[in-house]
Amino acid sequence: MTHEKKATLLITNIGQLITMEGPAPRIGSQLKDIGLIENAGIAVSGDEILAVGTSDEIEGRADLAESCKVIDADRAVVSPGLIDPHTHPVFSRTREEEFEMRLQGKSYMEIAESGGGIRSSVRDLRTTDKSVLMEKTKQRLDRMLSYGVTTIEAKSGYGLSVESEIKQLEVIRDLNAVHQIDLIPTFLGAHEFPDEYRDRHDEYINIINNEMIPIVVENKLAEFSDIFTEEGVYTIEESRAVQTVAKKAGLKLKFHADELESVGGGELAAELGAISADHLVYISDNGIKAMASAGTIAVLLPGTTFSLAGKQYAPARKMIESGVAIALSTDCNPGSSYSESLPFMASLSALQMKMTAAEAFSAITVNAACAIDRAGQLGQLKPGLPADIVIWDMNDYRELPYHYAVNLVRKVIKQGKVVIGRTP
Ligand code: NIG
Ligand code: FE
User: Which of 38, 45, 213, 234 could be a cystine partner for 5, CB 3.0 to 4.6 Å?
Assistant: First the structure.
């Protein structure tokens, strides 16, 4: 085999290399296959992967540049950079008072109905300067990167007016240009009904459909359209109306579905050909069937049940057995799940949803890539793909869910450059 490209970085002496080589997405028993190579190495050329293989295969190659940097992984686990496929990172004020109210017995929806929740974040965001939002969001991205996350999906949804939704999407665009994390933008104008349209749903939906979506599409501010389909927020009919317009305008679809009650959100996502339906704590059996046959990815957000101090988690095992592709995400937001740690979601997936470490790794890499419509492009380590790599402070990949609530990241490499940890 001849290779024109020269290696610029070699990672050697890897104890366990998780390549995620194989199907994207992984369904059923495929989730257990993490493409593991023991005693492995990786060669990187510029910003992409040049080769993966056993140490002998990689170190035996003669086509390495003389100036090639070498990282000795010292028997560590190495994986693809993690992908967080559902986040709401653009906000200023946090809502710790609501966290305490919930601990005293108020539900998320009771707080929302009395004017708190998403609407309180909306009031805050509308009066916050873009520069402040940039700075606060950047801090969250820095923290995500430190946990091994190299790509995220990021939503608007705290503006709920033409001007403020655009402001949020511009923050996402501008941070994507300067931050090491790649941000994939989602328009979530239908996250709630803003205070001024509480009793005029149709008028607000008209603004979304006839003003916001055209501007978002024309200015290429988002790739996806999302909606909070839930009892007391957007009904199934309202959701179908918004998402049909979004799809016609060229946006791909995501849903917040069946998070607090079973309303048929999973079924609607499948019917409209959504890329993903997210939450799904209360998904029906029909919804599971519909998602499996439509190939809609289920993005599970166990941090939300955890932080709402709920008892019920999404039925991950049932979905896996039914052939639904599962991804995991933080849902990082100031209300229902304030965490930037995707590895902690792997711990919750194990303890609360009985997912294995291998299944969790698939769900935060290759399947998370599929949930942002990057199947075969991200979340795997194979020649030609971006060199987004995590070197972990662990020798067995099963430590990730087991050694919980600590940061096990040793180094993060984004497009071939060491961005966390010392450069060799
Ligand atoms: O995914 N459910 C709707 N949206 C977010 C919560 C947003 C908020 O409370 O600020 C979620 O849980
Ligand atoms: Fe969310």
Answer: 45
pLDDT tens readout for residues 215-232: 999 999 999 999 999 999
229 Cα: distance to centroid of ligand 1 (angstroms) = 11
Q: pLDDT tens for residues 167-185? A: 999 999 999 999 999 999 9
Give per-residue pLDDT as tens, 49-102. Answer: 999 999 999 988 767 666 789 999 999 999 999 999 999 999 999 999 999 999
DSSP 8-state class, residue 386: B
* Best residue for ligand 1 mutational test, from 119, 228, 239, 281 (most atoms within 8 Å of Cβ): 228
Residues whose CB falls within 8 Å of the CB of residue 198, separated by 6 or more in sequence, listed in order: none
Instruction: Residue 397: give its domain's CATH number.
Output: 2.30.40.10
Residues 159 and 66 placed together within one structural domain of the fold: no
> Is it true that the peptide bond before 25 is cis, omega within 30 degrees of 0?
yes
Substitution site in 118, 279, 306, 329 for ligand 1 pocket (most atoms within 8 Å of beta carbon)? 118
How many Cβ atoms sit within 10 Å of the Cβ of residue 72?
Answer: 12
The answer as to whether 363 is a domain residue is yes
- Name the token pair of 272: 């409209």
pTM of the model: 0.98
Residue 1 in any domain: the answer is: no
72 located within any domain: yes
- Expressed in angstroms and rounded, the spacing between residue 388 Cα and the centre of ligand 2 is 25
Domain range for residue 223?
82-371
Domain count, the chain: 2
